[in-house]
Amino acid sequence: MKSNPIVDANLLAIHKRIAEKLAAEPHLVDLAAEKLEQRFAAGMVYRSVYLNWWGLIEMKNDMPSLIKQLCEDSEMMNKLRRHSPFVGILNEQEREEFFRQRES
Prior knowledge:
Blueprint: H1 5-24, H2 29-41, H3 47-57, H4 63-70, H5 75-81, H6 92-103
Helix pairs in contact: 1-4, 2-3
């Protein structure tokens, strides 16, 4: 998928918000792990994407490193965030608040 700077910026911003929530509630990483496993089993993600996300999820015992990686502004992370297993970490109210703040 071709890179789109606006999409990349939005995905980075929402992942920064996700990172804030993960810092407060580290157990939520397990939800991302479950989602990643489900998507892989259903053939919804490539093996390379799966392995990259799994490597990140395995950092859950070192939350600062996981958060740093999740919020890294790099071409590789931009591509990975397009297939993020961390969707669903923010509830609907948190997502709506995020998008309201982005609009203003």
